[in-house]
Amino acid sequence: MALPKLDVMTVSPAAAERVRGLLANAEPGAGLRISVEKGGCAGMSYKMDLAEPQKGDEVIEFEGGRVIVDGAAVLYLLGTRMDVKTTQFSSTFVFENPNQTSACGCGESVELKAADPAALGAA
Fold first, then answer.
1. Number of domains in the chain
2. Residue at 2 is within a domain
3. How many CA atoms lie less than 13 Å away from 81 in the CB half-sphere?
4. Residue 50 CB neighbours (<10 A)
5. Alpha-carbon span 73 to 67, nearest angstrom
6. Domain CATH code at residue 70
7. Is residue 30 a part of any domain in this protein?
8. Could you list the residue range(s) of the whole structural domain that residue 63 is in?
9. Strand pairing category for 9-11 and 80-86
10. From CA 109, how far away is CA 84, in angstroms rounded?
11. Residue 87 resides in a domain
12. Handedness of CA 29, 26, 21, 56 (dihedral sign)
């Protein structure tokens, strides 16, 4: 019996609305591409840009938008919930990531471990 496909990431309604706004003037077929890169005081940081999917990427489609997860970042983002945090002066994407083991004090970088898909029932 095949196990159900596990979404790499979930996108909150607020994040989906923000993504739709970012994509309103983007090229057709583009999405918000999320990757992780080495850097910062905790070791890694999230990177976002508007782009088209590349081979190996995971694509999360929703009405009026799409989030693209870099294929190299999938194991670091598996099980993550993408949301938006809004304060009086700013609005920013936040990631509730079960693979995050720590973060720096400034909030610019995180320490991530690769997820174990078997532990999540995706084996």
1. 1
2. no
3. 8
4. 15
5. 13
6. 2.60.300.12
7. yes
8. 9-118
9. parallel
10. 17
11. yes
12. positive
